[in-house]
Amino acid sequence: MESPVSSSPTLDVVIVNWRSDEYLARCLASLPAAASPAFAFGNVVVVENECRWEPSPWERCARGLPVHAIRNSQNAGFARACNQGARAGSADYILFLNPDVILNETSLDLPLRYFSQAQKSVGICGIRLLDDHGRPSTSHAYFPTPKRLLVEALGIDKLPGHTHRGRTVDPELLSRSGFVDQIMGAFFLVRRSVYDGLGGFDERFFVYFEEVDFSMRAAQRGYRSYYLADATANHHGGASSNQVLDMRLFYVLRSRIQYARKHFRWPALCGLVAVMLTLEPLCRIAWALINRQSDSVSQTVKAYWKLWHFLVLETGA
What we know:
Shape: globular
Largest sheet: 9 strands, mixed
Mean pLDDT: 90
Structural class: alpha/beta
Number of helices: 9
Distance between the termini: 59 Å
């Protein structure tokens, strides 16, 4: 590992782990190759949600790294665990990193060099994420609007020849660097001053949309997000959530409603929720049947049952 110079800015890495020890081990093993004179590691904080072992199996891969483990006996959720990890350090920058991401020599060097030259108004930076086949995967997205969320809810963005997109950007944009609405949470690099100024992630988002909300609040304060296409990392995707597909859909739906409640006007919120609770499950089931995905039908029914149950309990009905 190349020794950074003493004047380099410092970087804390925060990784939230939930039942992804095998991926986490590979992620940690990739960190030394990503070291650079452009920065010095502060803390590498692994926050284990619903920790099952102590010591954890991944710890053998963390030798030589300034790793600090925080173990939660229960699943505290992604936003809260990220805040726990961030509070454990004091570096100039914080990288929130998914455990199923593998870094290379460009992953940290290029964005931190960019930050060193960028104006202070650039608060968040992301890089190009590649799937297991080396193809670009979703690395940044548009901010949610009522129209974009309705397009996603009704599955219009899945139809062949459609002209309306949800939040997903055109694939060709993933090869271009530039300012974007929001960076995806799998690799979310932020100035600590911006993180502290916003009070961290909103812990009402258990998982999903927490980085969307953070990016929106940052934009409202005048901070910008930059996407750096020349820097890359491999992202497997869904290492944790693939284990509980019905719960994943439930959390996506619940967080979507929470985001809309926080950022949309009342008429738009009511219209979106009405579509989500009536037409969207029918569209999802129809799409699953067309594609002969019987398991998806069951998962959709379970997820919407949980959503209805959550909304009833929340309103006290």
